Amino acid sequence: MSDAGTTRAERRQPPVSTRLRLALLLGDPLIRLLALTWRYEIVNRAPVDALRAEQRPYIYALWHGHLLALTWYHRREGVTTMISEHRDGEIIARLVERWGYRTVRGSTSRGAGRALLGMVRELAGGSVFAITPDGPRGPAGSVQQGVLVASQKARAPIVSMRMDVDRAWHAKGWDRFAIPKPFAKVRITYGDPFVAASADEAEAAKLAAAIGPAIPAGLAK
Fold first, then answer.
1. Can you tell me the distance from the alpha carbon of 85 to that of 90, in angstroms, rounded to the nearest whole number?
2. Could you give the CA distance from residue 126 to residue 196 in angstroms, rounded to a whole number?
């Protein structure tokens, strides 16, 4: 997920490479087996249920390093995800589409203006989005403007979402990407919805504080 994009319908489907086939063949079933062992604790879900009941479009905002467990939990909910156009983006897009997501491609560094317009258009049409404001390149925990501008223009509430876990592996990359270990306890915490008043530093800091630390916290076992 990243902070901007163009819909898959608006671009040609690229050929499926051997690397992509292998990644999907091996990665998808392994993730599914691992994810089925996770135990979830949900905090403050009521505001999200209320938005769903009203059929109101809104934006999930989460840090890039929290993606895996949160994406799995929200599978088959009809959410649209933001997938960057970096080299591995096609693998990620194909994977989450198998889990029931729609994908929008692009990033704040490539085609950002076109991506933002598409995002606002989709929100106006009733879509629910999931966005990583610090993706696809970081720095971790830094809110880029796109999510705030989209919220403003579409009058769509932002719902912060974070993941904490009692035990996980962490990648060595900039986002310290978290992979919960088998039978891990995963806590998902939702923030109260708000429509961005502006796209300035104060509003970015407000959203960053609502999501919380970029590195997931450990939970008592």
1. 8
2. 18
For residue 41, CA distances in Å to 51, 80, 136 come to 20, 23, 27
Cα gap 103→2, rounded to integer Å: 10
The structure tokens listed for 197 are: 């008043």
The number of beta carbons lying within 10 Å of the beta carbon of residue 216 is: 24
Residue with tokens 């198998």: 98
- What whole-number distance in Å separates Cα of residue 141 and Cα of residue 50? 27
Tally: H helices and E strands in the chain: 7, 10
- With tokens 């840090």, the residue in question is 63
pTM for this model (two decimals): 0.86
pLDDT digit of tens for each residue in the chain (221 aa)? 655 444 444 444 445 456 556 556 668 899 999 999 999 999 999 999 999 999 999 999 999 999 999 999 999 999 998 777 766 677 788 889 999 999 887 665 555 676 788 788 889 999 999 999 997 788 999 999 989 999 999 999 999 999 999 999 998 889 999 999 999 999 999 999 999 999 999 999 999 999 999 999 888 76
State the CB neighbour count (10 A cutoff) for residue 51: 17
CA–CA separation, 193 and 30 (whole Å): 34
Grouping H, G, I as helix, E, B as strand and the rest as coil, residue 74 is coil
